[in-house]
Amino acid sequence: VTGRGKADIVFVIDITGSMWPYIENVAVNLASFDKAITDEQIDARFAVVYYKDIFSDGKDSTVIEDFEGKTWTDDAETLEKKLYALKSKVKGGGDWPETPQDALNKILEWDTFRDDAARIAFILTDANTKSGSGLEAINNEAFIDKIVYKQICVSVISDTKYKEESQNQYYDIFTRTEGVFIDLFRKDFYKSMIDL
Question: How many CA atoms are closer than 13 Å to the CA of 65, on its beta-carbon side?
């Protein structure tokens, strides 16, 4: 992220019940990332999209955070307040796999990305994904083509057991969009986010 000048960054956060043990570390790392970006004098805006499992929790369970009526914020203090309130949102999810592609579909609809800014999305989850009933698989080639066309670099911050291609529905999305895979359970995973 450093050296890019401008960046529009979206945190796509799994807020199902299984994330409860990790959500505080997620909040701390995302706040540290925000501070590091600010210190590097990157012209960055942030958006946050929360997701669960639309098959268990309903279609309204994917939520775009509201920053005083706007999708984006460049105010570090406002962002940090939202991040540190994450614990109050964690619940639900049904079975293990979740539906981050519903969140990515919402992002694909946005027309508020800046033309001259790098477009970066970080998926933060401890679970794999599911599809069905009109929801494309996250590793569906046509779905990834839409993300590539929109020029969004998608990185995945998750359990390392999902890193290898044979185990990982995320492999195609982060490799084809020039993102990376980062270990969710590292205490300081934000340092790898900065290196992107």
Answer: 22
